[in-house]
Specification:
It is built from 12 helices and 9 strands. It is of the alpha/beta class. It has 2 domains: 136 residues, Aspartate/ornithine carbamoyltransferase (Rossmann fold, 3-Layer(aba) Sandwich); 159 residues, Aspartate/ornithine carbamoyltransferase (Rossmann fold). The strands form 2 sheets. Strands 7-6-5-8-9 form a 5-stranded parallel beta sheet. The protein has a 4-stranded parallel beta sheet with strand order 2-1-3-4, with helices on both faces.
């Protein structure tokens, strides 16, 4: 059976821990300028139905650095954009490449694609989940705080794909997560139910609240994301009005652990979900480390899925 990476829920804690270890090894080898080409001859297909800076660059440059290659596929250029079915697109593209990443809208699109693909598929963001980002973020936390065990993460703003992915990460790994959103913008209900079941086994503590101060209290990691995600442009005004109390600003960080780190998947909107003083505070903000770590976390995921070490 072909292995895919569509959701962190499908991984075990041990698999996540091992992926992070491999990510660190890959990072070290690349930084040392070692001749390391485990992906020689491997071609990644990259389908983007939404824009991207970090995801495209980290996948494409990462593949090339490890001896492989990548092909960028925009729906404007392939027949998918003119109505060829997801199922046929999956069957055809699998005949040319060794592994595929997709950024798309409804999560069911990537599930259908994966069902028909004969090569591994990686979720590079759907409306529901963004697992690659959270893997890179866990790597960043490990580097900055030493360990993931025992950390307290607080997420503020919209209950979106990032919030949902953090909920699965906490549930599988077993750390404490507080998610502060307006009641009308809570995370996905199915994700919450699945996560609460996983949490019984992992010991994760997952707290959902509409009180940002409660979430920030003693937190080691303060995380936020845009208030209106890609594809929600029409809801921007309504969401912005609701989200204002959830801005990560100088007032809110007073409640956190004094050595807190500030995280954001980027792109950021200074003055909206985060105050410029907070995201640009080099003592606490690790947002560009997160962006860099995308490369290593994704390369580890690719090597794992195709069995190349
Ligand atoms: N964080 C992230 O996925 O960024 P891009 O949208 O630029 O890929
Ligand atoms: N929630 C954001 C994440 C961007 C990386 C979006 O989906 O637009």
């Amino acid at each position: 059976m072909v292995k895919h990476c569509l959701s962190l829920k499908d991984l075990t804690k041990e698999e996540i821990v091992n992926l992070l270890k491999l990510s660190q090894q890959i990072k070290q080898k690349i930084k040392n300028g070692e001749n390391y080409e485990p992906l020689k001859g491997v071609i990644l297909g990259m389908i983007f139905e939404k824009p991207s800076t970090r995801t495209r660059l980290s996948f494409e440059t990462g593949m090339k650095r490890l001896g492989g290659d990548a092909v960028f596929l925009s729906p404007r250029d392939i027949q998918l954009g003119r109505g060829e079915s997801i199922e046929d697109t999956a069957r055809v593209i699998s005949r040319y490449v060794d592994i595929i990443m997709i950024r798309t809208f409804e999560h069911s699109r990537i599930e259908r694609f994966a069902q028909y693909s004969t090569v591994p598929v990686i979720n590079a963001l759907t409306d529901l989940l963004h697992p690659c980002q959270v893997l890179a973020d866990l790597l960043t936390i490990k580097e900055k705080l030493g360990d993931i065990e025992g950390i307290k993460v607080a997420f503020f703003g919209d209950g979106n794909n990032m919030a949902n992915s953090w909920i699965y990460a906490a549930a599988v790994v077993g750390f404490e997560l507080r998610v502060a959103t307006p009641v009308d913008c809570a995370p996905n209900g199915v994700v919450i139910n699945n996560a609460l079941k996983l949490a019984q086994k992992s010991g994760a503590k997952i707290i959902l609240t509409d009180d940002p101060k409660e979430a920030a209290e003693g937190a080691d990691v303060l995380y936020t994301d845009v208030w209106a995600s890609m594809g929600q442009e029409d809801q921007k005004e309504k969401k912005h009005a609701l989200m204002r109390p959830y801005q990560v600003n100088r007032e809110l960080v007073k409640y956190a652990n004094k050595d807190y780190i500030f995280m954001h998947c980027l792109p950021a909107h200074r003055g909206e979900e985060v105050e410029a003083e907070i995201i640009d505070d080099e003592k606490h903000s690790v947002v560009f480390d997160e962006a860099e770590n995308r490369t290593y976390a994704q390369l580890a995921t690719i090597m794992n899925l195709i069995g190349r070490f």
